[in-house]
Amino acid sequence: MITHHLSDRLLMAYSAGALPEAFNLAIATHVAMCDECRARLASFDAVGGAVLEAAADDAGVAMETGALATALARIKSARPSPRLKSVAAREGCLPAPLRDYVGGDLAQVQWRNLGGGVRQAILPTSQEASARLLYIPAGAAVPDHGHRGMELTLVLQGAFADEDARFGRGDIEIADEATHHQPVAEAGADCICLAVTDAPLRFRGLLPRLAQPFFGI
Ligand code: ZN
Ligand code: ZN
Fold it and tell me: Which of 40, 121, 170, 196 could form a disulfide with 133 if both were Cys (CB 3.0 to 4.6 A apart)?
């Protein structure tokens, strides 16, 4: 049961093709796991299509008020299709969009130790934003940190909790400059997440800060 979803803003930007590759990866992976966000994305895709059609109909004339009404009507009539089934249940830990980046499932991931049993694997994406898989042993914590930009953290296995909430498989946390958190993996199962960020994280402790260039995060 997924309780933490993508924002409308992120889904719209994704639909418009306006995001860096790393963010596209996180959003495509959540959408592959989440019926609700897949249906909302379909609505935004339909609106984008309606706006383009209207522009074409008007032959270069700016969008008329009727086109907006049509677009809004299409949002309201958009219903989640019963054919859209969750794909996550049929697959291994990694949904399809991620497996292309890893070259397989979890067994193919090239982990690097960060200390304390925490491991990460940086995924190849364009430079504007970075994507990595994080492996957090049950009960262990990610270093306490703030954010200079936006960070999306998608749970693939296990669960973590921070000061604000609990995140299980499929949940996505959206963190920004205002967020300062210390995620801790739940006892019982090791936690694997996909984390993407558009700016280097701002670690509080001296050691993690010195180590940051080495880890590439
Ligand atoms: Zn969702
Ligand atoms: Zn964070």
Answer: 121
- Give mean pLDDT, residues 178-204: 83
Q: State the pLDDT at residue 29.
A: 96
Structural domain including 89 reads 8-99
What ranges make up the beta strands (E) of 74-150? 112-115, 118-123, 130-136, 145-147
Question: What is the 67 CA–ligand 1 centroid distance (Å)?
Answer: 28
Q: Are residues 60 and 144 in the same domain?
A: no
Among the candidates 62, 83, 99, a domain finishes at 99
Nearest to 162, CA basis, from 150, 170, 174: 174
Average pLDDT, whole number, for the chain?
80
Least confident of 25-34, 49-58, 83-92: 83-92
Q: What is the CATH number for 42?
A: 1.10.10
Final residue in a domain of this structure, among 54, 79, 99: 99
CB 151 within 8 A of CB 202: no
User: How far is the centre of ligand 2, averaged over its atoms, from the C-alpha of 184 (Å)?
Assistant: 11
* Least confident residue range of 62-66, 151-155, 213-217: 213-217
Same domain as 107, residue 94: no
pTM of the complete model? 0.76
Based on the structure, what is the number of domains in the chain? 2
Q: Give the whole-angstrom CA distance, residue 192 versus residue 107.
A: 13
Q: How far is ligand 2, taken at its centre, from the CA of residue 68, in Å? A: 38
Q: For residue 203, how far is its CA from the centre of ligand 2 (angstroms)?
A: 10
